[in-house]
Amino acid sequence: MAANTMCTVKGLGQQLSSGARISLPGSQAFTNANIRWSTAEHPDFAVVVTPATAQDVAAAVNYANACNYPFLAVNRGHGTAISLNNVHHGININIRNLTSVTFAPDGNSITAGGGVFADQVIRNLAARGKVAATGACACVGGLGTGLGGGFGRVQGFYGLVADNFLEMTVVTADGSIVTANNQQNSDLFWALRGAGHNFGIVTSFSTKIYPLIPNWYAALYIFTRDQLDPVFQLLNRYNANGAQAKELLTYTLIILNRAISPDPVIIVSLQYAGPEADALKYAQSFVDLHPVVVNNQTVPYSELADAVGTGLNSPACIEGGSSKATFPVGALSFNLTTIHQIYDMYTELVTRYPDFSESVVQFESESMLQVRQIRDEDTAYAHRGDNILFSLLTQYTSPTANDAIGPQYGRRFRSIVLAGDGLGRRLNAYVNYAYGDETVEQIYGYEDSRLQRLLALKRQYDPLGKFDFFNPIIPINRNRRGRWGGRWEHLAE
Question: Does residue 115 contact residue 95 with C-beta atoms inside 8 Å?
């Protein structure tokens, strides 16, 4: 630490509550706090602060500012943006202990700590017959997904995670603790819902809750390459240009599973909010295609993530072990020519580079009807016009040899999708999955008015770029100018 008496571990500890904890390199607590889902992103920390209160978070930010340390709020460590690697000798403000959940007297909302994760929220609410909008993986933060928009299983009913936020308590770049809602600091509240990683550390949030649909039908079908066309024709039919039934969602993967086939297989996970009898009007059509594997069950909503392979102990959640990167593309439909090109590209990747054999192509199809009930201008989330989210997730275990290969295929993947999705189609990159080589417009929207508003708010709330480590609005460099050129560089002058 620095020579200044204040800028010592002791000086930091004097500013924190008795419930807070400081962890230093060499301790197990420090190691545990810095384990991430992907080993490719490794922000460099000198110390970990585990706050017990919002005041502790503010104290850590004030300390970092006074002693000239970068800082990053960390919860579940699931993000894969390469900009995370720009943290050097920083402070990990680890908010995992901020996990309180309190119910409003009217039973229509909760207030939760910024460190809660999806499984905690889902199980806590299910015990009371309630549900909130969360991400689909049990391990992701209950808050962080919403800061970037937030797709999830109940979005057909209730919209994005961000659309359900009522209020947030935020520690801003200067260490202030502010309340943001539609009445107080409404401009900040707008920005937090879609570009929130750029504006502060949310220590607690209030969100709407709803009556629980207790039982869900979950089916898994595995198809071989020769069934590619009928499978994606059916998915197109059900997606219906974003007008998919609110009860229905499908997660489809192209994945290598040599126990089933020497070639990559297609896995369709169909999930339906309701009984099997109602779900069969969709599920039976997949059965009629004669998949090589069929599994189905009806489970309580609180057990759904485990049932479909996104639970806490699933590969989607287990921390460490491999380098990962995601390359998202918002799409309008499943173009069959495009799907074949993606399949062939993926086959080439896992065949030519065996270390990438755990990589996956994912297609997320949920109803967008409720999402589009919110106007584009009402939140900072920019991509309500997309119908399906395509992603390439690259995974490998030998980073030195393979760091350049994933981005190479990621760029090819994006080019293939855009070429088949319509003349002049531009890249929309979902911020929570964005790799980090995308332009600001591709992540945060192309409208000048939106970008101008975000830039003005960034200058107001974070003029020195303290929150520039996760897909920043103004990319990190010394003169705070855009590095991608074009309109945004002009706006950022």
Answer: yes
Which residues does 3 contact at the CB level (< 8 Å), separation at least 6? none
Span 97-137, pLDDT tens digits: 999 999 999 999 999 999 999 999 999 999 999 999 999 99
Residues in contact with 192: Cβ distance below 8 Å, sequence separation at least 6, in sequence order: 147, 165, 168, 170, 180, 199, 200, 202, 380
Going by C-alpha positions, the residue among 80, 79, 62 that lies closest to residue 71 is 62
228-256 pLDDT tens trace: 999 999 999 999 999 999 999 999 999 99
Q: Describe the chain by its helix, strand, coil percentages, rounded to 5.
A: 35, 20, 45
The Cα angle at residue 68 between residues 67 and 70, in degrees rounded to 5: 120
Cα–Cα distance measured from residue 461 to residue 205, given in angstroms and rounded to the nearest whole number: 19
In the block, which residue shows the tokens 């069969």?
Answer: 280
Half-sphere exposure of 435 (CA within 13 A, CB side): 25
Q: What token pair was written down for 488?
A: 């945004």
Per the rule left: phi > 0, alpha: psi between -120 and 50, beta: everything else, 242 is: left
Cα separation, 29 vs 423, whole angstroms: 52
* 117 closest CA partner among 95, 89, 84: 95
- Of the chain, the percentage scoring pLDDT greater than 90 comes to 89
Distance, CA of 250 to CA of 138 (rounded, Å) = 17
The C-alpha atoms of residue 60 and residue 15 are separated, in whole angstroms, by 8
